[in-house]
Amino acid sequence: MIQIENLHKKFGRNQVLFNLDLDIPGGGIFAVLGPNGSGKTTLIKCILGMVIPSSGEIEVKDNTIKNNWKYRQDINYLPQIANFPGNLKVKELIRMIKDLRQKESNEEELVKLFGLEPFLDKKLGTLSGGTKQKVNIVLTFMFDSPLIILDEPTTGLDPASLIKLKELILQEKNKGKTILITTHIMQFVEEMADEIVYLLEGNIFFKGSVEQLMTKTKQTDFEHAIAAISIQTADA
Amino acid sequence: MLKILKYSFYDLMRSRWNYVYFLFYLALGFVLLFLNNDLSKAVITLMNVIIVLVPLISTIFGVMYFYNSKEFTELLLAQPLKRSSIFLGQYLGVAGSLTMSLVLGLGIPFILYGLFRSDTIWNFSLLLITGAFLTLIFTALAFNISLSNENKIKGFGYAVLLWLFLAVIYDGLFLLSLIIFEEYPLDSFSLAATMFNPIDLSRTLILLKLDISALLGYTGAIFRQFFGTDKGLIVSILMLILWTVLPIGRLTYKAKRKDF
Question: In order of start, what are the domains of chain A with their CATH numbers?
Fold first, then answer.
């Protein structure tokens, strides 16, 4: 689904991604983890074409993404911070995105699932953080695309909505889709992820399943295993 | 691109400032005609207002819109859309709505006053065309400035400085250099200096068309002497087109390479 080769990205003097190779086959949930500033969001934005790589090659569904925009038709993206034009109503925003993508969508079902009906006629600027995130989720999941990229999807959600989100993600996974998630909530990763990609200082430090990680770090608890990586590398 | 244009335009049409701008021109048009009672004199007064005000409003509006729609832009960037069409669509949305306010705001009073029965119609149309060009040019410059500056305050500052430079300081420097170097032949220098400032260029263009030698000034006189009235008109319009195309070109070039 996604092939990345020799990816480099520099912001001025700050080298964020360094010689990164990553191969994500189709199907399953992949968790992209790593400490703050390890380049998770940059990696995701490179795949989306929002950040232009300094060098390296990225392919999505065997199409190079350089100077290409049509491949984004196959991607649903949930941005980290739900910033929307404040003077639009929720309904108008949904209609606009639908108009721009010209794809089948099932937003009514999702609006109902997250109980957003009373907010449809409200302006986005007046919504609370959690409600905005729900709108964000509706916009992401309303289209049927083979690749779903979620950047910190759990931010600001209440427990009930979190459960609904998890169900939604599993549903999409069972349809054979590829889902890329970044998060700092380890419990969420342990529950959902099929595979972990651990980024450290702009490169991939570990790639494999949760079990593999536990054997590698000789830990029995997932959260400790992740913490152990950071400590090991700090010692080294 | 047309869809982005549609949404930007729709968004701006709901903004209060666009109406203020429209009503201002409407009022200006009526007041001028009421005071002057003469269409061609009103055109000259309008020229002086348009040449300073249109660049100022376009610059400020352009910068404000660009920074305010940052979220909208980021939302669009993740959609299957071409980058150049996102930015060109937004640009045309801003420039289009400003031009519409200008044309409608001034057009309505003049038409009511009997523009179509008068022979100033061509002068008036040229005035509106120049106003449209100035809007396109300065909105494009404003978009360029804001694309290159992440910092809002800095971008705003540069944009206002640019306007101040082209509208006021440039003329001062120009005059000063004419005085200092008065012993040298300055024809080609002043010709070039006029070309490099879209505001001066517009002024010369309109005065050439109005054919009022007294108002032409030194540059205008040289312009006419060098090109003749018709050729002068064509050359200045071509220069205005160049002034529009170059910043739009840089805008698309930069937009393709920027990280968001």
Answer: 2-235 (3.40.50.300)
